[in-house]
């Protein structure tokens, strides 16, 4: 098999597009990267591989620690990282989830074609920009009370349905039907709630966007038909998360974990990976707070969906129902979930996971692949900048799609195509049912602002690609210039080749609103 030297770190290709880091004595489990050599050239340019190696050193981790093809450096844990920890003997780590809890993406379908929208891009984008608050700070579609916020945190999209901002089909086409039942709003600080109360139904800033797209290519006719997608169809992509509320939840619990488990944190290869032992009061508190933040993000995207539907109805002088603006799917990034997976018991004595807060190696260890007996275990599956990708037949796939597999939405940059995939047959045995979530950054926002001008990027997209872009600031456009991101075609190609997420359709931007 091939080897790849990444700045002194040797990677070995164990099968096509699957690479393993050279193992050292501190690594409890193998660390794997899903990538081709083109993507590896990008991944090696920051601390992604070092961070993945650090994850593989954590007690309780179930083999292997993974990096998806869009991987890049994050806070402690790589973006594009997937790690599973035993729900009894493992840990839960806020850094392995991220600050923007349930940053996710949803697609809303329409019965419009590209010709219906062409020539009206500016009118439509201006109307959407007015209807959906974006950028830093407060302001949202919904101006509610703290009582409303508490209900949204607890009930997720169920609350939107009760308030008239959703229809039943929206819940049925959302991951977990838009509600995490383990949510505990009481575990969220007042500061976090204060930040979220004024941001219900807002894009925020950074890489979040609202994009009008057209379907340009269909690769799987049967699945595209099941998803209700046709060539030249106009769709809307909404990408945002839990805003300041989720960021504050992550910050609050990182500090608490560092204070309550200082010895454990100091023993980690990177203290930013601070984690609470599964079953501890602190782990339960964080999980409840995180689930509530997940619900908040789903409410956020649902309220934006409501505003988008009303805006399209106004611009095209038809009801959104007549425009058939139905939700295809809403899929989450940046979450940890307690899931049951088939794993193998590792042979006694092998240093492959398990362990208590002191870092013991005597506990039973588990792996996705092994020679021991197969068992089903509850795991905390951390997906940071990665997305769930369950295959056909899985009970957690909505009934409407269970025969073909879960929809997966992978956005590209605002100058490139995006893709809809379906959960692949190999996603569970390869990646704990996970795949990439986007193109993945190539450069920092600071570097992007040095290399690009917002006005120039905006003009180029309009002139060369007929993409109309509007944003709260020129800096935001510069930070999100197409050259800032990896080639999404390469990312999706690896996912499809590994059968963890299979190609269904490609879309291309018509117009984009950036925070």
Show the helix and strand layout:
Layout: E1 3-6, E2 9-15, E3 18-21, E4 31-34, H1 37-43, H2 48-55, E5 61-72, E6 79-86, E7 91-92, E8 104-113, H3 114-117, H4 121-131, H5 146-155, H6 157-163, H7 168-172, H8 190-197, E9 209-218, H9 221-227, E10 233-240, H10 243-260, H11 262-267, E11 276-277, H12 281-316, E12 327-332, E13 335-345, E14 366-367, E15 374-384, E16 386-388, E17 407-410, E18 418-423, H13 427-431, E19 434-436, H14 445-451, H15 454-465, E20 468-471, H16 474-479, H17 488-497, E21 501-514
Parallel strand pairs: 4-5, 20-21
Antiparallel strand pairs: 1-2, 2-3, 3-4, 5-6, 6-15, 7-11, 8-10, 8-12, 9-10, 9-21, 13-14, 13-15, 16-19, 17-18, 18-21
Helix pairs in contact: 4-12, 5-6, 5-12, 8-10, 10-12
Short synopsis of the structure:
This protein has 515 residues and is an alpha+beta fold.
Amount of beta strand: 25-35%
Alpha-beta content class: alpha+beta
Overall average residue pLDDT = 93
Oligomer: single chain
In total, the number of strands is: 21
* Computed Rg: 22 Å
């Amino acid at each position: 098999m091939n080897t790849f030297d990444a700045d002194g770190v040797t990677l070995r290709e164990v099968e096509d597009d699957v690479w393993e880091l050279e193992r050292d004595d501190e690594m409890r489990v193998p660390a794997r990267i899903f990538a081709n050599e083109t993507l590896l050239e990008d991944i090696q340019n920051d601390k992604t591989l070092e961070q993945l190696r650090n994850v593989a050193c954590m007690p309780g981790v179930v083999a292997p620690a993974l990096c998806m093809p869009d991987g890049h450096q994050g806070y402690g844990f790589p973006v594009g990282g997937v790690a599973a920890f035993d729900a009894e003997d493992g840990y839960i780590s806020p850094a392995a989830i991220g600050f923007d809890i349930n940053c996710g993406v949803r697609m809303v379908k329409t019965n419009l074609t590209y010709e219906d929208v062409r020539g009206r891009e500016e009118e439509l984008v201006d109307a959407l920009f007015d209807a959906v608050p974006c950028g830093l700070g407060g302001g949202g579609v919904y101006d509610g009370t703290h009582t409303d916020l508490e209900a949204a945190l607890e009930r997720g999209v169920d609350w939107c349905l009760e308030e008239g901002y959703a229809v039943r089909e929206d819940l049925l086409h959302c991951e977990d039907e838009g509600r995490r039942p383990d949510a505990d709003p009481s575990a969220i600080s007042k500061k976090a709630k204060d930040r979220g109360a004024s941001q219900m139904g807002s894009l925020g800033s950074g890489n979040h966007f609202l994009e009008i797209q057209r379907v340009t290519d269909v690769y799987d006719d049967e699945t595209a038909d099941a998803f209700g997608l046709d060539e030249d169809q106009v769709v809307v992509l909404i990408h945002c998360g839990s805003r300041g509320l989720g960021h504050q939840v992550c910050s609050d619990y990182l500090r608490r974990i560092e204070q309550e488990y200082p010895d454990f944190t100091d023993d980690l290869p990177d203290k930013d990976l601070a984690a609470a032992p599964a079953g501890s009061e602190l782990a339960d508190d964080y999980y409840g707070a995180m689930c509530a933040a997940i619900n908040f993000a789903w409410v956020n995207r649902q309220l934006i969906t409501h505003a988008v539907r009303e805006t399209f109805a106004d611009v095209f002088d038809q009801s959104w129902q007549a425009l058939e603006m139905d939700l295809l799917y809403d899929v989450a990034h940046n979450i940890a979930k307690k899931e049951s997976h088939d794993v193998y018991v590792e042979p006694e004595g092998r240093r492959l996971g398990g362990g208590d807060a002191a870092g013991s190696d005597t506990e039973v260890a588990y792996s996705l692949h092994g020679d021991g007996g197969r068992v089903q275990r509850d795991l905390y599956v951390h997906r940071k900048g990665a997305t769930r990708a369950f295959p056909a037949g899985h009970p957690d796939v909505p009934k409407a799609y269970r025969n073909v597999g879960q929809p997966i939405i992978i956005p590209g940059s605002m100058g490139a195509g995006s893709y809809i995939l379906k959960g692949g047959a190999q996603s569970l045995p390869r990646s704990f049912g996970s795949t990439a979530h986007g193109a993945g950054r190539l450069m920092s926002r600071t570097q992007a602002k040095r290399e690009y001008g917002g006005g120039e990027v905006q003009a180029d997209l309009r002139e060369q690609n007929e993409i109309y872009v509007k944003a709260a600031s020129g800096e935001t456009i510069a930070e999100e210039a197409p050259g800032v991101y990896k080639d999404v075609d390469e990312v999706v190609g690896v996912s499809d080749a590994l059968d963890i997420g299979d190609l269904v359709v490609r879309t291309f931007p018509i117009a984009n609103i950036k925070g």
